[in-house]
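QA checklist item 7 of 12: single-chain prediction sanity check.
[x] sequence parsed
[x] length recorded as 180
[x] structure emitted
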Amino acid sequence: MWPKLVHSELGLYPNAQQLDPSHDFRLSPTADRPHRLHTMTTPDDTAQTWREVADQLTGAQIAQLERLERDEPQTLLEMAQQWAAENMTSAARVDLVAQPAGAVRTFDWQLDSTWFRDFEGTTRRAGPARVQICGRQLPDGSTRRWIAVHTRHLDALDAAATRKLAAALTDAADEIERLS
């Protein structure tokens, strides 16, 4: 019998379990375990534990199961098989999506209510600040871009530094419009 499952930012989990809302579930590109989606043709319904289908899960899903490991093993196996089945139907589609135009760095695909991946675009230096284009891509290839300003101290700019920052922001805004 399958447990009642509800959607979360990690996929599906039994409604009896609570997620820690302060936990950041994004996948780190520097993590020691690769977090890639695996394309497969059939889910493993012969597995005895959830770890036997771990290669078919995302890193965030594995982390959730590891936190819940003290629970009933059969429930965890069923959760893993459900996630693997979802990944199987979605991963094949997202792996074929071209990198966004202007992306300098793309991150792994993640599943929230839908699949997405974040990316970084060009960066401009403007005095004490870095002006960077960032974005998010959906499985249909559509993107949303924004500008991030990174700096330690931006509280007292002189006229020249202000003009440099304004020019960098204008250039980044122009680039976003060209890419849209």
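[x] summary fact logged: The first helix runs from residue 59 to 67.
[ ] second reviewer sign-off
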